[in-house]
């Protein structure tokens, strides 16, 4: 697929909708106005609204990394894999996925539900929001999508075909480089406070740590258990308010088959950032909730996975193997959480949880995150529990 295509603008989005019969039934292009709201690293995102108040979102892949510009080219075909991820999530876990209206491969445009009434979860956490039931919602979401796309929910042939269809080499390479390799090397993408330099050098020179990260990178590259979201952090969710909020997973362009524990670990790593921020700012109530988050998410995942287990297709997969599988997923998640924690402090693509803090609080939070990461990768707990961030 060529990357020579017309980029949408706020002025042309309505015209685009007018040329898409499926979208014209959802929104009136004659009265539609649009606003470009993309604030991520990769894509254009337009909220389109007509005179009757009906709305939808168009998301278009740029042929380069938006945060850098044309100097970092990137295939726009990544939207093909995001379309697969969105369809899977909408089918397996509709309550936690945006409604997916379709994909135009020729223009690399995805159409989906407008979630403007919700807030980016990272923003809500940075502002001190507490949603006590969020861990339960996310854990069940991962279990449903993992079960549906693994050998438990698909025939052998369908499973292998799905792996082939979901191979996402360009985006997976970014993950392999940014999450695993670059933070442990002297790479130009790495950037961190000078006060952290000695600490970072000591951490990244620990041969136990580097060996474990290498093992986890290999697992990510070779173990195709289920379709994972691949970028499962708090910036990839939209959330409402209240104890059991509306919560939707978005931004699935890193979707590919991989270890089920990868998504769980990525989110635990990002909860680590939110917890370190809460501690640095003296938000005791939020910090206490975030300490409990990983264990609650894991429990919700395991319970939903076990609930779905009787629906498995292969009769040779017995209950004993379920326990072995769950133990491995849990161990993987702990390790991947450590990798994500190192990456966001040392490597490319920082997080506002830490970067927006005043200098003294920033240093405290960054050290806290890296201390947790070191323990998770060199002396991990036996299970996901309330001591993860100790």
Give a brief outline of the structure.
The chain is an alpha+beta fold and 390 residues long.
Task: Give a written overview of the molecule.
The chain has 390 residues and is α+β, with helices and mostly antiparallel strands. It folds into two domains: 13-112, Phosphorylase Kinase, domain 1, CATH 3.30.200; 119-378, Aminoglycoside phosphotransferase (APH), C-terminal lobe (Aminoglycoside 3'-phosphotransferase, Chain: A, domain 2, Alpha-Beta Complex), CATH 3.90.1200. The protein contains 14 helices and twelve strands. It has helices at 13-18, 21-24, 78-92, 121-126, 134-149, 156-165, 169-181, 197-204, 207-222, 261-280, 284-308, 319-346, 352-355, 359-378, and strands spanning 33-36, 43-49, 55-61, 64-65, 69-73, 100-104, 109-112, 119-120, 226-228, 237-239, 247-249, 256-258. A five-stranded antiparallel β-sheet has the order 1-2-3-7-6, with helices on one face. Strand 1 and strand 2 (43-49) form a beta hairpin. The termini are far apart.
Topology, element by element:
Elements: H1 13-18, H2 21-24, E1 33-36, E2 43-49, E3 55-61, E4 64-65, E5 69-73, H3 78-92, E6 100-104, E7 109-112, E8 119-120, H4 121-126, H5 134-149, H6 156-165, H7 169-181, H8 197-204, H9 207-222, E9 226-228, E10 237-239, E11 247-249, E12 256-258, H10 261-280, H11 284-308, H12 319-346, H13 352-355, H14 359-378
Antiparallel strand pairs: 1-2, 2-3, 3-7, 4-5, 6-7, 8-10, 9-12, 10-11
Helix pairs in contact: 5-11, 7-9, 10-11, 10-12, 10-14, 12-14
């Amino acid at each position: 697929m060529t990357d020579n295509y017309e980029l949408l603008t706020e002025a042309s989005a309505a015209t685009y909708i007018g040329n898409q019969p499926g979208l014209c039934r959802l929104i009136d292009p004659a009265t539609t106005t649009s606003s470009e709201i993309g604030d991520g690293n990769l894509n254009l995102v337009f909220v389109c609204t007509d005179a009757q108040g009906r709305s939808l979102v168009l998301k278009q892949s740029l042929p380069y990394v938006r945060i850098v510009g044309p100097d970092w080219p990137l295939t726009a075909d990544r939207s093909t894999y995001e379309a697969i991820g969105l369809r899977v999530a909408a089918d397996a876990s509709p309550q936690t996925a945006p409604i997916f209206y379709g994909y135009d491969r020729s223009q690399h445009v995805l159409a989906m539900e407008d979630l403007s009434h919700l807030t980016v979860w990272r923003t809500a956490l940075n502002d001190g929001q507490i949603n006590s039931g969020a861990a339960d919602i996310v854990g069940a979401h991962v279990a449903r999508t993992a079960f549906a796309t693994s050998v438990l929910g698909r025939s052998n042939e369908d499973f292998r075909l799905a792996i082939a269809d979901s191979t996402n080499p360009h985006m997976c390479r970014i993950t392999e480089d940014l999450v695993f390799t670059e933070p442990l090397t002297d790479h130009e993408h790495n950037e961190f406070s000078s006060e952290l330099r000695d600490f970072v050098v000591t951490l990244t020179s620990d041969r136990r740590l580097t060996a474990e990260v290498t093992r986890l990178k290999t697992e990510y590259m070779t173990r195709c258990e289920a379709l994972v979201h691949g970028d499962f952090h708090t910036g990839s969710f939209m959330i409402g308010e209240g104890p059991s909020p509306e919560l939707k997973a978005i931004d699935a362009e890193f979707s590919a088959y991989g270890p089920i524990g990868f998504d769980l670990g990525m989110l635990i790593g990002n909860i680590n950032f939110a917890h370190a921020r809460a501690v640095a700012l003296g938000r005791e109530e939020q910090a206490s909730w975030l300490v409990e988050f990983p264990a609650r998410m894991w429990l919700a995942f395991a319970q939903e996975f076990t609930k779905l287990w009787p629906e498995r297709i292969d009769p040779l997969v017995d209950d004993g193997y379920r326990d072995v599988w769950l133990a491995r997923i849990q161990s993987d998640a702990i390790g991947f959480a450590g990798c994500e924690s190192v990456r966001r402090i040392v490597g490319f693509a920082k997080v506002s949880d830490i970067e927006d803090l005043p200098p003294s609080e920033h240093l405290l939070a960054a050290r806290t995150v890296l201390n947790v990461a070191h323990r998770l990768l060199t002396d991990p707990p036996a299970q996901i529990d309330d001591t993860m961030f100790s």
